[in-house]
Amino acid sequence: MNRINIQFYNQTKYPVTVFLEFSTDEFVLKPDDKIRICCESKEEISMIESSMIDSEYVVVYVPFYCQATVYFNDDYVWSMAESFWS
Hints:
Blueprint: E1 2-9, E2 16-21, E3 25-29, E4 34-41, E5 49-53, E6 57-61, E7 67-72, E8 75-77, H1 80-83
Parallel strand pairs: 2-6
Antiparallel strand pairs: 1-4, 2-3, 4-7, 5-6, 7-8
């Protein structure tokens, strides 16, 4: 199984919204919140892309063949990205 972890930590004084695509999950990070996205796949994970828009939004593009498990402030959170594989 191939794995990759992505973590975002909101060091701003303002909320930041994280969108997880392909599943359209949306998470709002308040100041000092963090989100960890653990992706795994039987195939090689060649690239996970992300982009920031106007310092208020982060979009993470997870390949459709990956299962993504999300942890918000180190607590497990159910996400649609995981439900595709359940």
